[in-house]
Design goal:
It comes from Extremus antarcticus. This protein is an alpha+beta fold. It is 39% helix and 11% strand. It has twelve helices and 14 strands. The strands form six sheets. A three-stranded antiparallel beta sheet has the order 6-13-12, with no helix packed on it. The chain has a three-stranded antiparallel beta sheet with strand order 7-10-9. The radius of gyration is 30 Å and the shape is globular.
């Protein structure tokens, strides 16, 4: 948000017809808001713990039509204010005699002692108490504004704390975070080589078009593959499950050594994530998946989470007007709480983990996952296969829900692109139903061989019907009606 972006690049994520914090900005107002957003972001970099600055930027984001980001800034502002209020209230309640001898530093970045060396006399104590009360009043007002900001951008407040938005690429994202460069493609092919010499990733998966198709990747066979041969066994460390929470056996934190449940939030980790399972409930598998992805970015020393190879290889679906729901708890509060409490990331000062980055990661993850109601997995190589409604390869999930095995559905020739079926329950559906459901993953109508064949058959059938109507010899539009034998009969009185 600290980069200059032309006004024509801005596209709101606010669904049409949804209530918003105010009317949409005019073309003149848009330029003013963009400049304001940039200056407020720079102010946050300088004073990362100033709740009023987070609040101000959140209000600007709301006017620009980014409800999910406005809620994220409102949540951070409310968190800063609540933490400060808790300190003031707890210190004041500790003792009626020893009033808090602290004042909040400039822009709320630090605390400083206000007590004189010889102790505070009655007048100084009275003045400190007045200042504390004034500060508490100011903080309470800021807290109220932050909550109103969140309420105005959540459509189901306060029962569910859920909002609506359309997934779109944020205009301030740097270009290098939006495409897959040659070193990344080489890295992916190295990973394929380690699993066997059966396939590789290539650019221009569907040929060269009028637009740049270099970032359209596909998986191609590097040799002839016989039917039922195993092509790939893919294992992931980015997954989540609805396994046991903190009420399970305290000594078994890893899910192994006697644990009969393969779904355990802590499997393969050295930290305890069972609290996420408790907090997220039925959505724990998705929250744990995001947490594990963020953990991979940190453990692997990525310069930016969007630059990590597991994130950079993924593509989101930014097409159309499909409305998604976002949760204040699952999409904002829990990921930030995980970063704040279980990693070294300062969620206020580290710009690489701003709210828009988290939503960008989520858009890429959940356009490429596989799983079931109990587990959600993001496979590093399997996620790169393109879809076909008549695939030439089959896939299956292992019992650990962290391994996917891909095998040939028929004989495959060298150089042939390998396709999987994204949703195996759509095989018997009509063309229209399949294309509608595939809109979750594809940016346009499915153009696989089966869909194109059925579309052509449907068009030909429609043309045959039109020919029959035209050959009937009469035209209703001109008032010509057919005459049948029974029309000649006359009823007798």
């Amino acid at each position: 948000m600290d980069r200059f972006v032309p006004t024509h690049h801005y596209q709101s994520t606010q669904p049409s017809g949804e209530p918003r914090a105010g009317p949409p900005p005019t073309s003149g107002e848009l330029g003013v808001l963009i400049k304001r957003l940039r200056s407020q972001t720079e102010a946050i970099y300088r004073h990362s713990y100033d709740a009023s600055t987070w609040l101000a930027r959140g209000q600007t984001l709301a006017k620009l039509g980014y409800p999910e980001l406005a809620v994220g800034d409102g949540w951070k502002a409310e968190l800063l204010v609540s933490s400060t209020l808790n300190i003031l209230i707890s210190e004041s309640a500790t003792s009626a005699i020893a009033l808090p001898a602290w004042k909040l530093g400039y822009r709320m970045g630090f605390w400083m002692s206000s007590a004189p060396e010889g102790g505070a006399d009655a007048e100084l104590r009275r003045r400190d108490e007045e200042q504390r009360d004034m500060l508490c009043q100011y903080l309470a007002q800021t807290q109220g504004k932050a909550r109103r900001l969140m309420e105005e951008n959540l459509c189901l407040w306060p029962e569910l704390e859920t909002g609506k938005y359309i997934r779109r690429r944020y205009p301030w994202m740097r270009k290098e975070y939006g495409r897959r460069d040659d070193p990344l493609v080489e890295l992916i092919n190295d990973e394929f080589s380690e699993t066997g010499q059966a396939c590789e990733v290539r650019r221009h998966a569907f040929g060269h078009g009028t637009k740049d198709t270099s970032d359209v990747l596909g998986i191609f066979a590097t040799r002839d593959i016989a039917a039922n041969d195993t092509i790939l066994v893919d294992y992931t460390r980015t997954w989540g499950c609805n396994g046991p929470g903190t009420d399970g056996y305290a000594a078994n934190l890893g899910g192994d050594q006697g644990c009969g449940n393969l779904f355990h939030p802590n499997a393969g980790l050295t930290i305890d994530l069972r609290w996420l399972r408790d907090a997220a409930g039925k959505d724990a598998r998705c929250c744990l998946l995001v947490a594990r992805m963020l953990l991979c970015c940190l453990e692997d020393g990525a310069s930016h989470p969007l630059a990590h190879h597991l994130v950079a290889r993924l593509t989101p679906n930014y097409s159309g007007q499909h409305v998604h729901y976002f949760s204040l708890l699952n999409d904002i509060a829990l990921p930030n709480t995980f970063l704040r409490t279980q990693t070294s990331i300062d969620i206020f000062a580290n710009r690489a983990y701003d709210t828009w980055v988290l939503f960008t990661i989520q858009a890429r993850i959940f356009n490429n996952t596989c799983g079931n109601p109990m587990a959600e997995c993001l496979m590093p190589l399997f996620s790169l296969f393109n879809h076909s409604c008549e695939p030439n390869v089959l896939w299956g999930m292992g019992v650990d829900h962290r391994t996917v095995t891909v095998r040939a559905a028929r004989d495959v020739k060298e150089g042939e692109q390998l396709f999987v079926e994204y949703d195996g329950f759509m095989a018997d559906e009509t063309l229209e139903v399949r294309r509608r459901k595939l809109g979750k993953w594809l940016e346009g109508p499915c153009a696989c061989t089966r869909c194109m064949r059925e579309e052509q058959e449907k068009q030909q059938a429609s043309e045959r019907v039109d020919e029959k109507i035209e050959g009937a010899g009469w035209d209703i539009s001109k008032g010509q009606l057919p005459v049948f034998p029974e029309d000649q009969l006359k009823l007798k009185n």
